[in-house]
Amino acid sequence: MSAPDTDIDKQEKRHRAPLWGMWGGLGLVAILFLGWLLWTVSQGSEPETPVERMDDFTGQVEEVDPNAPTTRDAETTNTVPAGSD
What we know:
Layout: H1 8-44, H2 50-55, H3 71-76
């Protein structure tokens, strides 16, 4: 069902403010998104100084005995002291 009296110029004037409000809202969201994106990139892109990063690196790999007990194994092992029967 169509409107009985359509005046395009009148409708255009009536819808101008809501359309500008929608475009303004989209613009605000775009600005906030770009600001958040720049802030996120700036927070994670600063590594520590190269000297600090290279101090821990020797270029050698330590060999580890796969059968050696670890601290985690010692914590989970339930041992009973001798003579506590």
